[in-house]
Amino acid sequence: MISLKDHLDKLEAFLVMADAGSVRKASATLGRSQPALSRQIQLLEDALETPLFERTSRGIQLTGSGKKLKEFSQRLMHQVDELEAQIHSPKQIGPTHIRIGTFESLSIRLWPNLIIRVRDRFPGIRVGVTTGDTEDLFRWLLEGQLDLAMMCVQAKVPNDLVKVDAFRDSYQVYASPEFMAETPRQPLSNQEAGNLPIALVRTARCRTGDTIMDLLEKMDLRFHTIFEVDTFEAAANYAREGAAIAILPGIIAMPSVRKHKLAPLALKTVPREGFGPHTMALLYRRGKISRNLVSALHKELVRWYGELSVRADVCLESQNS
Q: Does the pLDDT value for residue 139 go beyond 80?
């Protein structure tokens, strides 16, 4: 007989799906395929002999049994977090001061919130953040100047470094609400889009190694006015100020979407789910930092991204309603 006890490992995926309200969004957050995620939920439903979700015109929502399982799962996960925090005291998870490297845009949009979460969970740990490009972060990790790095890695990782994938992301075209109000007819054709000024990081790449310019060429998108900037945060600022539209990864755009300062701009040749998929990862040098600490940071990072994705989606729904 199938028992829920045999499938407790699937509860975290269930919670992400319950919060996301969509198999597609949950799949992107967890970095798993939609069929694999659906199979996990099906196993939970088989174990409990009851449906946990029902489909609606706006996605999926919890059934009565699903709501009860969500409450139980949240209590269980909270208890697990408390136990881990007690077991993984600062003495057991490594140095009390960890040095983390990342890209400048991520240091602005991601790390302040994440550092607060880590500090609340591990009060004895102090976190320092340094920014640089991919080559800088690789070198600093190997030289011991950094304990950990969070970055999008497309190049081959040096043998002495360990990579732990955190979540998948993709690029999308964004614009300010004021710009959107002046462009009511969407999706835009390639010709209409090409007449708009755009801000982008030309050297940014996706999982296949293609640059943003390569990806635009494949979609037959040619812009007459391009503002080339060094960071995604600079590109986002062009869009927020209404000076241009911008190509941004979701992790950079979502905080501004949540504050109603940016929204996706629909283009006929750009998929709704975005383009240029890439993976954000944590990297560290073998034997340099505790795996328990990496695991704790990884868990907080995945949860933060999932929560931010859900809040951004809610804001978009309110803007479109």
A: yes
